[in-house]
Amino acid sequence: KMDDDDDDIPQLSSHSLAALQEFYLEQQQREGIKTSQGFNQYSIGSIEENWQLSQFWYSDETASCLAKEAVLAAGKGGKIACVSAPSVYQKLKEQDGEDFSVCILEYDRRFSVYGEEFIFYDYNQPLNLPENLLPHSFDIVVADPPYLSEECLEKTAETIKYLTKGKVLLCTGAIMEEQAAKHLGVKICKFIPKHSRNLANDFRCYVNYASGLD
Coiled-coil stretches, from where to where (predicted)? Predict the structure, then answer.
């Protein structure tokens, strides 16, 4: 009988269905906000995290603090490169009109909405960079390697060393302290970065210059 077959189809409880509908409504509302006038495309969260790419955005306070530090370290008219650190890039772009320039090196092509400042970047090919990205042309490089592995850090470090004139601001796990010192000569800071969603791993900042993060 057909009725018996219907019993095999899994049914959502009314509570689950309501929760699912609420989720979709929130998604639609968020998308509506994104497309409405006055939306700041540089706001953190304007592009959703993709956990499959190991993306975790900083909290607004952390991104602001790191952006402020990058501007101070770069100096007047300075050039800043954000490597796999889109939250910092977005916060820097919110400071429209400030006397610095910035670009974002990122694997996620959704960030290509930022135009010429976006540079596609795959840490597995650390020096596969555009010809116009000249060596040692950035006053500071802010980097957040996507994975907590020495291989990822070592390859990202190649990119950082190619780009920077000297200053490095690295964000990665506390467990990477030894490797960070080995590959980039950076030391851990007192400042503890936070993410918009809590991470299980203890996260820290590292620098190779006298910073305002201590």
Answer: none
